[in-house]
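Aim 2, interim progress: modelling of the copper (II) ion-bound target.
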Amino acid sequence: APSTSYHAPLTFTLRTGIASGRMVYIGVGGEIDGKVNPTLIVHEGELVQVNLINGEGAEHDVFVDQYNARSSVVVGKNASSTFSFTASKPGEFAYFCTIAGHRQAGMEGLVRVISGPRSSPETEGADIVRDPADLPPPIGQRPPKVVKVALETIELKGKLDDGTTYTYWTFNGKVPGPLLRVRVGDTVEVTLKNHPDSVVAHSIDFHAATGPGGGAHATQTDPGGSSTVTFKALKPGVYVYHCATPSVANHITNGMYGMIIVEPEGGLPQVDREFYVMQGELYTVEPFGSHGDMEMDYDKLISERPEYFIFNGAVGALTKRHPLYANVGETVRIYFGVGGPNYTSSFHVIGEIFDTVYTFGSITSPPLTNVQTVTVPPGGSAVVDFKLDRAGTFVLVDHALSRAERGLVGYLVVQGPEDDAIMHHGPADQMPAN
Ligand SMILES: [Cu+2]
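Predicted structure of the complex, ligand included:
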């Protein structure tokens, strides 16, 4: 049987009971919670533990005959018994009560053993993708205050693509790091912990801060350590933050970037939906599209020859994993930033026009209107707003489109009417019949 990295047993709890007049097992907790005679899904090679609880008082047991694994007979309400077995062969195997007549009365379910080991962070990489809908709500009206921010730098093997992993360095385990949100005049107290399992020191430089290194001088933090820096948010804007420990380019490419919004008094104009998207590059020894665990290539980094271009940390992050979802009639806003470390983005949404754009993250300047493509430098940002007039799948790209073939693509899925007056297939005088 294949070996497994799971040391702790996979545990299922079954309680005996009555459902629709039949004697049954009822799942307790986890994915089987409340299910009648739940199918216990395990992977080949896993150690499986089953807890049986007597829920109504009659005598019962559980037997998995193909594995010759059984509980004791539980006698009396709330009596319990535990047994375990190793799921050494794939297939479907019955579990049932051996007390005379109980199996026929309904006490029967299946153990499904899936061939091969369970995919795990070790084999396919942890999920490091930041959901673009994962951002805090607007601040609204409030006076300035002290805002405490806790960040942790975490190095972990993450999923870069199907069958491909990369050792990311992150703020809080995702790429980009969390979108932080304060208002002008706030005092921002940042505590940066570096996880004890880290290999190197990390730090943070806030472009929103005024002072040495944007906070990087005060926050160089060894593995297992912690540091704190406090800064005053003097100027409204949408600012990048990033690790600033040498080689800084190396720390940034590995995923150590995020953004902080410093709202002006009263905030930005309200929209229906906000999204958070950041672009970066990865410099791997192996060519784009390779499988296995990718290794960072310092020569390629220094000579600016990336293999991967990515939105929110991974290939497919905003297509297969977390497309942006919205509806016709809504206004959407994308806070778009470039971690880089090196490539300027020509940010564009195929099939849409940005109604307003705050370029360079400057939200105190009047926005540009009706923009097709916006240039966003590394360590910079833009805020794009647009109203959705027609349903469809719109495609987020860097209009340096070779990069789309190295991973840089996302979807905005807009649901609602497909207004043919806005666009339809065919001549103007031939509208499709609806
Ligand atoms: Cu770092």
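The two ends are 57 Å apart (CA to CA). The longest strand covers residues 146-161.
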